[in-house]
Amino acid sequence: MTKLRFAPSPTGYLHLGNVRTALTNWLYARACGGSFVLRLDDTDLERSQQKYVDQIQEDLQWLGLTYDELVKQSDRLVLYAEMADNLKAQGKIYACYETSEELDLQKKIQLSSGKPPHYNRVALSLTPAQIAKYQTEGRKPHWRFKMEKGTIRWNDLIRGEVTFQGDLLSDPVVIREDGSPLFTFATAIDDLEMNITHIIRGEDHVTNTAIQIQIMEALQGKPHPIQFGHLALISGRKGEGLSKRSGSLSVMQFREEGLEPMSINSLLAKLGTSDPITPHLSLKGILNEFSIHKFSRSTPKLDPEDLWSINIKTLQMFSFDQVRPRFAAMNMGEVPPEFWSLIQKNIIKFQDVKEWWSICYGHRSFREENKSLLEIAEHYLPPTPWDESTFKTWMNEVKAVTELQGKKLFMPIRQALTGQEHGPELKDLILLMGRSKVLHRLQTARN
Q1: Which of 97, 108, 177, 285 registers the highest number of CB atoms within 10 A of its CB?
Q2: Residue environment code for 56-93, b if the CB has 16+ CB neighbours within 10 A, otherwise e
Q3: For residue 246, what pLDDT is reported?
């Protein structure tokens, strides 16, 4: 059975890059009739926080990315310790006693010599006396996985064939001084133990994948069974990276600002493909068009304004029945269908309906400098009943008297009635407002 996972670390809020990874894994799993797991990589006990755990779950629920299983790595520490002991016994991982300062110095020396940072494996040649000395000093070991020589190769779902030479990769730290596992080690164990079949993540994990392939093969003594795919990382409109810890483009931020969840899904599902970005009202529509093979290796750029452009189109697709419960939740009372059909093409976010509700039905007044025009407009305001031809008849009479036309005629009227420079057509708007309100607005606008 196809099984994928989204494995964020709860050390910050989800940003759009994280969501793109989650969405792609969710779509792949659902397209194959498989399962989707949320696994919280929370072994960094100092930086992981419950508020981030809660927000990650809330964000995924809001986006509609339902998961079939929730796993926390912090609940699996005993398993990781057992696996570590097995590899220690095989000599696959080894103890190191360098301090962070000593490792930094080693790195600087290598870089100054024009060499890439690469652990020198000095710990493998420590004598029992040297180890005893370090322990007497109070040093606790961290543990590294010993990379083996040979070619590491996989056929990436997005990048095609990828190869690394194992001995050119630095031995990664897999166990901290306090005994807790690092991401590289715990993830390899979990992906095997949970029978994950496909791993789709950002291209910043390509080197991690090469390392984890060797760790997996050391753990089970045979080639790994997992297929990998690495998405090109999203950059900002100026080419800058996205950072969850800086709050950059966080899902929570966009949600608070009023962005629709399906606007996010619609854009991120197509970002990095050649498909046109079109709004969808459900994940089912996106799922029908999904293929992992559509993603390219080119770096996609994301302008937040694109999200709002999609949001406008998304709102225009909602039927009145789909938004009726949202009106009730906003305590707007009985909202007629014609109100929604009139204003839905004139809002950027759904919360804007409250302003238009107030404009159409509230006790509002606006100022307009062209008082003589408003006085004439008031004088020629047609009696009821009104219909779709009322506004044209009214404006023709005002135009004949004032000899104004175009913006010089309509803009002062719009300002007096709505206080807005743009909005629904006045011929429709006045029918919602009614004669008494239109008359009142014309009178108060010139006082």
Answers
A1: 97
A2: beebbeebebebeeebebbebeeebeebbeebeeeebb
A3: 45
**What is the rounded distance in angstroms from the CA atom of residue 112 to the CA atom of residue 328?**
66
- Write out pLDDT tens, residues 64-115: 999 999 999 999 999 999 999 999 999 999 999 999 998 999 899 989 988 8
* Whether 213 contacts 20, CB under 8 Å: no
Q: Return the structure tokens found at 235.
A: 């950059």
**Dihedral of alpha carbons 134, 135, 137, 142, sign:** positive
- Name the CA dihedral angle for 363, 367, 372, 375, rounded to a multiple of 10 degrees: 0
N- to C-terminal Cα distance for the chain?
73
* pLDDT tens sequence across 314-372: 999 999 999 999 999 999 989 999 999 999 999 999 999 999 999 999 999 999 999 99
How does DSSP assign 365-408, residue by residue? ----S-HHHHHHHHHTPPPSP--TTHHHHHHHHHHHHH---THH
pTM: 0.91
* Rounded distance between C-alpha atoms, residue 228 and residue 5, angstroms: 12
Give the pLDDT score at 304.
87
Angle between the 77-89 and 206-220 helix axes, to the nearest 10 degrees? 70
Between β-strands 151-156 and 142-145, what pairing exists: parallel, antiparallel or unpaired?
unpaired
112: exposed, middle or buried (Cβ count in 10 Å: 0-12, 13-18, 19+): exposed
Closest by Cα among 58, 72, 77, 21 to 272 = 21
Tokens 């899904």, residue located: 265
DSSP secondary structure of 92-135: SEEEE---HHHHHHHHHHHHHTT-------GGGG--HHHHHHHH
Q: Percentage helix, strand, coil, to 5, in the chain?
A: 50, 10, 40
Q: Write down the residue that tokens 């743009």 correspond to.
A: 422
Write phi, then psi, for 54 (nearest 5 degrees). Answer: -60, -40
CB 445 within 8 A of CB 365: yes
Cis preceding-peptide flag for 385 (omega within 30 of 0): yes
Distance CA 413, CA 334 (A): 28
Residues in the chain: 447
Residue stretches of the chain with pLDDT short of 70: 241-248
Q: Is 413 strand, coil or helix? A: helix
